[in-house]
Design brief:
Helix content is 36%, strand content 15%. The chain has helices spanning 21-39, 77-84, 89-95, 109-117, 131-142, 156-162, 232-242, 255-261, 270-279, 282-292, 306-312, 320-325, 367-375, 412-424, 439-442, 446-455, 475-481, 483-491, 505-520, 525-537; strands at residues 185-194, 204-210, 223-227, 249-250, 253-254, 333-336, 347-353, 356-359, 362-365, 381-387, 402-405, 430-436, 460-465, 495-500, 541-545. Strands 6-3-10-1-2-7 form a six-stranded antiparallel β-sheet, covered by helices on one side. A five-stranded parallel β-sheet has the order 13-12-11-14-15, with helices on both faces. Strand 4 (249-250) and strand 5 form a beta hairpin. Its EC number is 1.8.1.2.
């Protein structure tokens, strides 16, 4: 048999780079694969390419935002899981997340998935936007952890991320007080004022806090974590249905205080239905088991909260301790900060929509929004923390122009951006798009923005009112209307920001931007979409969505 000599290949890694021979070989393969993808050459044909084999295990395959086609908050869970169905376990865990990178879990979506996969995190209910749907899917997927689901060959980017198997926790900040959901500090509630007119269909509050004794600061773009408290009346109704004593001591607190301060009384977890199934018989047991398995025997599963469950299974009275053990912990809530610490040292403000709706004969209240808007008293302390932004920052160069799309409470971080740019003396142009239902009732911070316009800080203000005319008109419609100027700003290097609803508004804004680029940048739709994706990769398109 004739042996063919293979000439030695030049390494892609400099000799001075601090890597072992094994690391150098791996990195040669990684960068070779990237070059192959760009040139169309098969990876196996690239010099120095390293593939998994009997003597070269691929190692664990982690989730990676850059290679996640499902990383789109407008997608439903089923659609995301379908895209990830042939992927290893960690990416499938990521696909079950809400894909918002909101930070409420203390991670971004990929890192939360990787922390679960690597058993550095055991809590499966941290994805607040994903709710029970995500928690239930994570519970099912988590059963595969440790079952050898890592034998597939990793993609280059996923392997690169896995080189150190370090999981980024942007909120932890080395464990400093007030920098993590797990280590909040006390701050003082200062004031609230309503931003809507009396005839508005919404109730939105500007709320302020004193940070002077907390040791906290923040940067425009960060979010503020609030540890809310449940409505006392709701806790009292639950205690009455349990037939328990409010003052009954449980783990150092009264039952009433634990329900108010420690447990979620909203969407009921499967464990509550499991508990009720153990205590019931006949048809009630069948219903409880069905609900615990994600079924909807009576067509009311989406309307149930903890109190509604107790009414539904009225007469079944679990013990107080067993009942609490079946509940989820009360999660902190994150809000985009609407102030600049440089402009307002020692203070912080939020822009908060009150959540209130009616199901049957009961009013349902948003826990944190009504806590901040109605229940906490001025001067009272609450637990808080600062969540560092994940890729949502003003450009480092103050001369760079910025375009900000923030309808409704989505305007919050852009009020902070404008205050920050003024405090820094940044000379770059600023263009804000704001929209809501009615100009007369829903123009948040109207006087402030008018003053910013007059001073020249706010170069341009584009408004959209969806209920003032016969046809609905949104910020994305205004974008298309002023598309020529919008394209000109982008061509001149502007950074583009959007904040607000992830499911509809943010998706519609991105479509409008693609349309603007296609029309005024003389590109096909495909080329325009590629241009917008390029803005994202370059950090010139940033989103804070919820």
């Amino acid at each position: 048999m004739n042996m063919i000599a293979i000439p030695p290949q030049r390494s892609l890694i400099p000799e001075s780079a601090p890597f072992s021979p094994e690391q150098r070989a791996w990195l040669d393969g990684f960068f070779g694969a990237l070059l192959a993808a760009q040139s169309g050459t098969a990876v196996a044909d690239m010099p120095g390419a390293v593939t998994a084999g009997p003597d070269q295990p691929a190692g664990p395959i982690l989730a990676d935002n850059d290679e996640a086609p499902w990383h789109d908050p407008s997608m439903g869970l089923d659609e995301r899981l379908a895209l990830a169905k042939d992927r290893p376990l960690a990416p499938r865990l990521m696909a079950a997340m809400a894909q918002q990178d909101c930070g409420q879990c203390g991670y971004n979506c990929a890192d939360y998935a990787n922390a679960l996969f690597l058993r550095k995190e055991e809590r499966l209910t941290l994805c607040a936007p994903g709710g029970k749907e995500t928690a239930r899917m994570l519970k099912a997927l988590a059963q595969e952890i440790g079952q050898g689901g890592t034998a597939s060959t990793a993609s280059p980017a996923a392997q690169a991320k896995d080189a150190s198997t370090e999981i980024s926790q942007p909120t932890a900040a080395a464990g400093l007080p007030g920098r993590s959901r797990d280590n909040p500090v006390a701050a003082r509630f200062l004031s609230r004022r309503r931003l809507n007119g009396a005839k508005s269909a919404k109730t939105t509050w500007h709320v302020e806090f004193d940070l002077s004794e907390s040791g906290l600061d923040y940067i425009a773009g960060d979010s503020f974590g609030i540890v809310p408290r449940n409505q006392a009346g709701l806790a009292d109704q639950i205690i009455a249905l349990l037939g328990a004593r409010p003052e009954a001591p449980i783990d150092g607190k009264s039952l009433r205080d634990r329900l108010i301060e420690d447990f979620s009384l909203g969407t009921p977890p499967d464990s509550l239905f499991q508990l009720l199934s153990y205590l019931s018989t006949g048809d009630l047991r069948r219903k409880a088991r069905a609900l615990a398995n994600g079924e909807d025997p009576d067509g009311d599963a989406t309307t149930l909260d903890v109190l509604a469950v107790l009414y539904k299974f009225q007469g079944i009275r679990p013990g107080a301790e067993a009942f609490l053990e079946a509940l989820d912990p009360l999660q902190p809530r994150l809000y985009s900060i609407s102030s600049s610490h440089k402009a307002n040292p020692g203070r912080i403000s939020l822009t908060v929509d009150t959540v209130r709706y009616r199901i049957g004969a009961r009013d349902r209240l948003g826990v944190a929004s009504t806590f901040l808007g109605e229940r906490i008293a001025e001067g009272e302390e609450l637990k808080v923390y600062v969540q560092k932004a994940h890729g949502f920052r003003l450009p480092e160069n103050g001369e760079t122009p910025v375009i900000m799309i923030g309808p409704g409470t989505g305007v919050a971080p852009f009020r902070a951006f404008l205050q920050e740019r003024k405090a820094e003396g940044a000379s770059g142009r600023n263009w804000l798009f704001f929209g809501h239902q009615h100009r007369d009732h829903d123009f948040f911070y109207e006087e402030e923005f008018a003053a910013m316009r007059e001073s020249g800080l706010l170069t341009r203000l584009s408004l959209a009112w969806s209920r003032d005319a016969e046809g609905k008109f949104y910020v994305q419609d205004r974008m298309r209307e002023v598309g020529a100027d919008l394209w000109r700003w982008l061509a001149e290097g502007a950074h583009f920001y959007v904040c607000g609803d992830a499911k509809r508004m943010a998706r519609d804004v991105e479509r409008a931007l693609v349309d603007v680029v296609a029309q005024w940048g003389a590109r096909s739709t495909e080329e325009a979409a590629s241009f917008v994706n390029g803005l994202k990769k370059a950090g010139r398109y940033q989103a804070d969505v919820y």
